[in-house]
Amino acid sequence: MSDSSQLPKIIVIGAGGVGVIGALSLYYKGLSNVSLVIRSDYDLVDKRGYKITSCDYGQFENWKPHHVYRTVEDASESGQFFDYIVVTTKNIPDGPAHSAVSQVIRPLIDNNHKLGEGCQTNVLLMQNGIDIEKEIWNLFDRKQYHLNVLSGIQLIGSTKVAPGVIDQVGRDNLIVGAFERENKDAINAAKKFVELYHNEGKNCAEFDENVRYSRWKKLLYNAAINTTTALVGLDVPRCLEFGVDRKSTEENIFKPAMREIVAIAATENVLLDESLITFFVEITRHIMFKPSMCVDHEKGQLMELEVILGNPLKIAKNNGVQTPVLSMLYYLLVVAQGRLREKNGLLKFDESKAELVDSVQSL
Amino acid sequence: MSDSSQLPKIIVIGAGGVGVIGALSLYYKGLSNVSLVIRSDYDLVDKRGYKITSCDYGQFENWKPHHVYRTVEDASESGQFFDYIVVTTKNIPDGPAHSAVSQVIRPLIDNNHKLGEGCQTNVLLMQNGIDIEKEIWNLFDRKQYHLNVLSGIQLIGSTKVAPGVIDQVGRDNLIVGAFERENKDAINAAKKFVELYHNEGKNCAEFDENVRYSRWKKLLYNAAINTTTALVGLDVPRCLEFGVDRKSTEENIFKPAMREIVAIAATENVLLDESLITFFVEITRHIMFKPSMCVDHEKGQLMELEVILGNPLKIAKNNGVQTPVLSMLYYLLVVAQGRLREKNGLLKFDESKAELVDSVQSL
């Protein structure tokens, strides 16, 4: 292994099941210098490292990447230029303002801009949803900041089961591409990242030449199934089996919702084959799986509602697509999200007046 | 007060907040002999009576009606003929078979039939929902059993707050009528019940000449609002205020759902005025009220889903009415009810196969 300080520098933000295995994958490959921002477990991990049980890489007792930071600010003050800023946190635009992705990465972008002298900063969003890149584009001038925004879509079963303890039970499968299909620099940066990430025989990592298609495709599952399970608080098989005649959940919720996504995507010339609908209904029929929004709802954490459902519905509205099923799911989940926002102090409800208190941050 | 054993005999089934205040109202009037079936609190109440704080009747420390029974079977073996059988339990056709209303009242109906020699048996269903009388009609021949089935719709705020302790905070308002509009005996029995129940200056009780209309009217609220609050687990004001721009819950869920109820009722020539929609949206806008289905859902108890939403949707289907909003609420709530049915042992789910176990009682 070469002197890691000479290698491309990558900082991973978000030290959950996804972020830690992501950092491990990069470190394992040995072609980059890997930093990880760890919020809650920093002291523990800084001292002892992670205990990891990984179906891809095996057992680790005290693993750490090259650098760990408590905050993004600390990392930005380290004097380093980061070639890749990898964001693995949840994307919740209706969450606290300071946790918006653009705000979280701002110190690193600014610092890179100061140090970089024309070097490219690549932001890789390993997150769910559609139109998540626009928040970054709106805030930072791509030319001025030499900024590429990259898309990462990951399939992985990995969970932080205790402070500093990660269990990866499902293989890591990552596709990376450029949000701008015509931007050669961004495309090259995405391809380069795949090289830095892919460990032959361990994980899967591929270049994604049609990011928008891949995101719409994943939305078929997330907008229809993730959302429904969150509302009723049940794993996918129970949602299917508890329907009227064991059929109504798939016939009257999942499939019509997915057909609406197909129709919305079609107005952007993204053509999703009808066979994908059956594919996604079947994919977790016999797996005791609770999608992320369902888990977040249960834990009292904010759900990725806007990027999974709110953004596609904005596109539907602009393009005149009827979405009766997705809209109902959305209007119900907005209320459920309101409940979570109240619990998390993002809005206040005055029971004596039976009204929202206006002063608190609104959507 | 006359010798109560000579008065019309009334038995109230269900000793929750509604049933106990109902029994008290009848007892207070002094024109009937009142029995109450008390399941869980029987021993306590038999010994000490109820402690009641009532906005209609004041304070009682040790109140009991003329008779208390532990079970309907015990009551049916008492050798009495009951002129009125008043059912105040929840109506849950998809619950345990033994708790179906027709099964619960069967011993009393049979006993009356044996003793009655042509006397009329009046069954008063003080319950939510539409088409609840049909279950009784299907099981008992009305002529053979000299049976009248009466409808009671009650507005009351009354809760059992502890074993043997009842708190009534909202005035009792009852309307009673005959499910069969043309049946003079039933109409007279309903009017008679109002006389036995109404305490001038205390409660309100009125004869209802158009039962079907009243039930569709109440369904406007229950099918749209009760259901939504149950899904998201929030009181009505929060549901309204947490919507997009504080508007989507009423504009995109409550009102369209109510318009669908109006359309279904119209196919039965029940004409609900559009102004009722606004009325019901407003009625609990500023009251911190959680409807019954929401409370049941929270407590892990089965919801009155079929009589509130399933039955109207059957009528809609038969009569060709489109119900996109109500149907979505229904399909989601059927899954939520499945969760409650599993918790209550009414269905079994095999996680190793990710499938329902067939042998358990199904819908």
TrEMBL record, chains A, B:
Keywords: Membrane, NADP, Oxidoreductase, Transmembrane, Transmembrane helix. The chain crosses the membrane at residues 7-28. Residues 210-333 form the Ketopantoate reductase C-terminal domain. One of its GO terms (cellular component) is cytoplasm. Pfam families: ApbA, ApbA_C. InterPro entries: 6-PGluconate_DH-like_C_sf, 6PGD_dom2, ApbA, KPA_reductase, KPR-Related, KPR_N, NAD(P)-bd_dom_sf. Residues 10-180 form the Ketopantoate reductase N-terminal domain. Gene3D superfamilies: N-(1-d-carboxylethyl)-l-norvaline Dehydrogenase, domain 2, NAD(P)-binding Rossmann-like Domain. GO terms for molecular function: 2-dehydropantoate 2-reductase activity. One of its GO terms (biological process) is pantothenate biosynthetic process. Belongs to the ketopantoate reductase family. This is Ketopantoate reductase. It comes from Zygosaccharomyces mellis. The lineage of its organism: Eukaryota, Fungi, Dikarya, Ascomycota, Saccharomycotina.
